Amino acid sequence: MSDDVLDQAAGWRGEGRKVAVATVVKTWGSSPRPVGSQLAVDAAGKFVGSVSGGCIEGAVIKEALDAIENGRPRLLDFGVTDEQAWDVGLACGGKVQVYVERLD
Length: 104
Known about the structure:
Blueprint: H1 2-14, E1 19-29, E2 38-42, E3 47-49, H2 54-70, E4 74-80, H3 82-87, E5 94-103
Antiparallel strand pairs: 1-2, 1-5, 2-3, 4-5
């Protein structure tokens, strides 16, 4: 999937759109997507790919839009303990670290 995401990001850049790419760089425990999973976002909020799901994906898209605006890359940490996971209906907890950068 990463190749498709990067191809789409390159296509958007070729059209003159501003784009950011988010990449899963580290996981611990349970994680919906493996290391290397990517998500590309354009300045209008259109996106392709996936780095997680649910509220994490929404937060990553927001950070990608911010990165497009100010050009600053960022390293994001998301996690849930085993106890918290059970409370929200998940079998176990986990953490994911996502790097977000603007493509120039």
